[in-house]
Write a structure and sequence with these properties.
Number of helices: 2
Strand content: under 5%
Largest sheet: none
Distance between the termini: 177 Å
Order of helices and strands: HH
Number of strands: 0
């Protein structure tokens, strides 16, 4: 049986109809691993080189100046915080002093009020005694005044 040639058939006799071999999963994995190795090693060693090798003197001086500025700012903030803490401590001392003075003032007023009440009681007792003497002396005279 004769078959006419198709577009997919090779032009030269003895050639296979397959044009390329498809990549298998193993071959894809191997290519990916090689690419990663080629990219990761230079990146790793570049990072190691940059972290371990000292920078040039100008760069070190700039870094040192930045550190000194940061340190000066930190000390300024620390002084500000200390000043604020001293202000807060002064305010709290003032509040304690005011509280103590208020307690002393309350105790003094209570004492004065008790003394005033005692004076009022004493005066009333004296007036009652004088009134009773006066009534008693009046009743002795028979209700007549001398």
């Amino acid at each position: 049986m004769f078959r006419p040639p198709s577009e997919a058939s090779p032009l030269l006799p003895g050639k296979s109809t397959r044009r390329s071999i498809p990549l298998t999963n193993l071959c894809k994995f191997a290519c990916l691993a090689v690419a990663l190795v080629l990219l990761l090693f230079p990146a790793y060693y570049t990072g190691v080189h940059l972290t371990r090798c000292p920078p040039d003197p100008a760069t070190r001086d700039a870094i040192r100046r930045d550190w000194e500025q940061e340190q000066a700012q930190y000390k300024a903030i620390e002084r500000l915080w200390q000043h604020k803490q001293e202000e807060q401590d002064n305010i709290e001392r003032g509040w304690r002093r005011d509280t103590e003075q208020h307690a002393l003032e309350v105790a003094r007023r209570i004492k004065e009020e008790l003394e005033r009440q005692e004076q009022v009681r004493w005066r009333w007792a004296r007036e009652v005694a004088q009134h009773e003497r006066w009534r008693g002396s009046r009743s002795d005279n028979g209700g007549r005044e001398n």
